[in-house]
Amino acid sequence: GDFNSGLAACRTAERRLRELIKRYDIDVLLAGVQRNLERSETRMRAQIAKLPDGEYFYEDYLETFGPSPEYRLEPLLLPLRLTVTGETLTADFTGAAEQAPAPVNSTLAVTAASVFITLKSIFDPTQALNHGSFRPVSIIAPEGTIVNVTHPAPAGSHGEIRKRVIATMLGALSHACPELSSADIHRTSFHNLIGGVDSATGKEFVHYEWSSGGNGAFLEADGPSSMAAIDWGDLCTVQSAEVMETRYPLHVHWTRQAMNSGGAGHTRGGLGTRRALQLTRGQAQYSLLADGAVVPPFGILGGESAAPVGSYMHEDGEDRPFPTPGKVGGHPMQDGDIIVLQSAGGGGYGDPLTRDPEAVLEDVIEGYVSIEQAKQSYGVIIHNEQIDHNATVTQRTQQKNQRHRVRLTGPATTSLYEAIGRGQKRVARLHPDDAAAINVVDDQMMELLGSRGAPIRAWVRVDTAARVGHLELDARGYEMLRVAPDQEIQIRPLFRPQLS
Question: Cα separations (Å) of 376 from 109, 229, 382, 392?
């Protein structure tokens, strides 16, 4: 289908080019093409020139897992150095994890396209797309890595690496142009497949579901909910229940936007989608290729993380997760089994304690945010669909005063990354008192927040040898947060909302 569509598009383009040549002649056509390319290049150069010259950094992870029975998380590091010089921009992915023997690697074409998608969406979304827009942009993606795969490693999962490259771009640009950037999008294309032989017809079937998620909040407004991200174009991502139930032995129990799934912020991230599917006859197998099930979408400028991706077998009234979140291969399903699919939300933008209480109340009334999260994340006290303004002022003051800050030391002379299988992850060594202050335990994820931009994610190491009230940071960490040694930063646990 995709191949034939592409072939048809090429044939249509050829026919129309011949019509233009016949009407205007080849020289006029080529001159027009050149003028359009130059016009787009000029527009993009003008936008890049508005950014402050300098280097901007961010890092993120692709999720892979080791073998059974441990199924330990082996995150693949993806660092980005974004350099702005006058009217040109370079995206450098040097240091990206080595290519893996799993379908998580990307070709250079997908990596470059992901950079271009972000820049075009942020800087010049209304102008027609052509190669001229990308002439001022350079990509460095070392061969043999997850962003430039070579033989014999498999290439695939381009929707996952594409969104991860977009995430690193958003993280870096949140320092360069926070007024134009959004928080992180919903992390994954979320490829769910249920297939088998329909016992009623004897025919094979495969249902492919790519549930849309929430998109990142931005300066002017909340992020869109249950909507395709910027790299998907105008794809329909919420499949019709009636069509699905007619074609396959499946029943849609319910589909809804997931309460509390959008990242809290001055503007709120968009909500993800939850859907429950039941196999109505026979047997089938369920498979999933996704990302962002462990490391969720991030907020920026103090905004909170959104809900991660999830899929669960619904048994005995409970949602039971798979041992490898986001990665499932051929899980058997029997007649009557129910699987729950949860796409990620979008990250929040700005401090949640500055969100208009009336907007929080509206979110509660509409079912986007629970009363409990209104208090926990936004500091807004609501009773009987009314705001208690005095209690809200008190609650917000209390929550702001309880934010835990540590003084930075370093830069560290030894690596702050721990190797784990084929992956590695950043660790933060906290004194037990600091760990208790933010209510985290060993190997739990936490965030380090500067005054601007996106947070650093790290895995906690509770260490009695660490200095209380202090945190050692490496050179890359200082570059990402754009802070200096001896400054104070806020630390907090990675937010995990309760969904419904």
Answer: 43, 28, 12, 11
Q: In angstroms, rounded to a whole number, what is the distance separating the alpha carbons of residues 135 and 41?
A: 6
Q: For residues 125 and 117, what is the distance between their CA atoms, to the nearest angstrom?
A: 9
Give me the long-range contacts of 66-69 (CB less than 8 A, separation at least 24).
Answer: 66/420, 66/421, 68/323
Query: Which residues is 328 bridged to in the sheet?
Result: 288
Distance from the Cα of residue 371 to its chain's centroid: 26
User: Does residue 142 form part of some domain?
Assistant: no
Confidence of residue 236 (pLDDT cuts 50, 70, 90): low
Q: Record the tokens describing residue 1, joined without a space.
A: 């289908």
The verdict on whether omega for the bond into residue 67 sits within 30 degrees of 0, i.e. cis, is no
Beta strand 273-279 pairing with 283-289: unpaired
Is residue 337 domain-shared with residue 377, that is, in the same domain?
no
The range of the structural domain enclosing residue 395 comes to: 356-401
**342: nearest Cα among 443, 421, 259, 431:** 259
Q: State yes or no: cis peptide before 125, omega within 30 of 0.
A: no
Structure token pair of residue 106: 């990307």
Same domain, 396 and 285: no
Q: What share of the chain has pLDDT > 70, as a percent?
A: 99
Confidence of residue 235 (pLDDT cuts 50, 70, 90): low
| Paired strand residues for 405 | 490
Q: Residue for token digits 């809900």?
A: 307
